[in-house]
Backbone:
């Protein structure tokens, strides 16, 4: 079973850029069948889709975050990345990466990584 | 932007009960609707996609129905493991949007 693993700093200062990496356990990251998403969840709240990247590098973002988000991919390393700029306390959340498919949406998720924005 | 609204926000039920959660879209989304289950401290798990197709490995007591703007998730006979939070999600070529979630509690 394919696995995803998020990694990155657990603490980011306000106004700085949050950077996370998701490592994919198999070669499906290179398959045109899938896309690769980031989702976040503040403690005790609901899920918010951040955006996605295709193996080609094409992206789609949540309009509410679009100004601050960049998602990229390096299939040769089996990794994709999230950068969120100008963070505030409102960006404190659990961040998940997930594999997506046009037909069945997000079928494999990482365990998540907690990011706290605080000085 | 398409908005997804779930009801109820909280649902209390007992083992063996049949429960239904509703998800409404602010405009027609055809069948591009998924349901997820999230247990405390865990990542969401895909249950149903395309409104009514059961993901592989998901018990048959879970079912989904609906089209257009109104969708339902039904659990036919609640098991102890089912108490969790459930989310609907619209997915499309441009974006994904989650509902706010329905917490299923033990009565």
Residues:
């Amino acid at each position: 079973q394919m696995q995803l693993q998020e990694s990155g700093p657990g603490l980011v200062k306000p106004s700085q850029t949050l950077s996370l990496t998701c490592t994919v356990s198999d070669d499906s990251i290179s398959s045109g069948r899938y896309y690769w998403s980031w989702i976040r969840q503040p403690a005790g709240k609901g899920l918010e889709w951040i955006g996605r990247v295709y193996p080609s590098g094409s992206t789609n973002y949540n309009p509410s975050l679009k100004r601050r988000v960049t998602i990229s991919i390096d299939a040769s390393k089996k990794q994709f990345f999230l950068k969120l700029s100008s963070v505030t306390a409102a960006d404190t959340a659990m961040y998940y990466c997930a594999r997506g498919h046009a037909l069945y949406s997000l079928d494999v998720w990482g365990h998540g990584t907690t990011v706290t924005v605080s000085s | 932007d398409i908005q997804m609204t779930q009801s109820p926000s909280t649902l209390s039920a007992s083992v063996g009960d049949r429960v239904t959660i509703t998800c409404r879209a602010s405009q027609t989304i055809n069948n591009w609707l998924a349901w997820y289950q999230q247990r405390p401290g865990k990542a969401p798990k895909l249950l149903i996609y395309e409104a009514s197709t059961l993901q592989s490995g998901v018990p048959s007591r879970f079912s989904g129905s609906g089209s257009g703007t109104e969708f339902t998730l039904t659990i036919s006979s609640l098991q102890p493991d089912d108490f969790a939070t459930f989310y609907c999600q619209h997915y499309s070529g441009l974006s994904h949007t989650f509902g706010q979630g329905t917490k299923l509690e033990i009565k």
Chain B has a mean pLDDT of 96. The two ends of chain B are 36 Å apart (CA to CA). Chain B touches chain A at residues 1, 34, 36, 38, 42-46, 49-50, 53, 55, 87, 89, 91, 93-101 (CB under 8 Å).
